[in-house]
Amino acid sequence: MRLNEIKYDNARPVEGYGPGFFRIGGKVLNGPVIIDAKGVAAWGGYDDQATLLALAGTVDVLFVGTGADTAHIPADLRITLEDAGIGVEAMATPAACRTYNVLLSEGRRVALAVIPV
Fold it and tell me: Which domains does the chain have, with CATH numbers?
């Protein structure tokens, strides 16, 4: 088996997560977070549309981690983001973190907005 080291350049993968927290860039962050090429920040959840809309033009897909289980995001939020040219994929937070990390390692223009499990 051949193992290759993944280089993320300036991007930040999710290194770990647990009840109420995420570990990103060696730091533990509590509560919902958003990660993109510009950095990591606290996220106000589904009502914080402005933070997500700021991603327009810089990402192709936004992965939304909905917590321990997959859930639909509010329809108005999905429509607003898609109208701004941001593709949206909602899934359980663990799956969203894994998918984000894989596509990030491929150099894709992705972002992650996640609610802790």
Answer: 14-114 (3.40.1230.10)
Q: Of 114, 111, 71, which Cα lies nearest the Cα of 93?
A: 114
Quickly state the pLDDT bin for 101 (edges 50, 70, 90).
Answer: very high
What would you report as the CA-atom Rg of the chain, rounded to the nearest whole angstrom? 14
Q: In whole angstroms, what separates CA 85 from the centre of its chain?
A: 16
64 residue type, one letter: V
- Measure the CA–CA gap between 111 and 84, rounded to whole angstroms: 15
Q: What is each CA distance from 20 to 28, 85, 93, in whole angstroms?
A: 10, 30, 11
Burial class (CB in 10 A: 0-12, 13-18, 19+), 32: buried
What is the reported pTM? 0.91
Are the CB atoms for 66 and 83 separated by under 8 Å? no
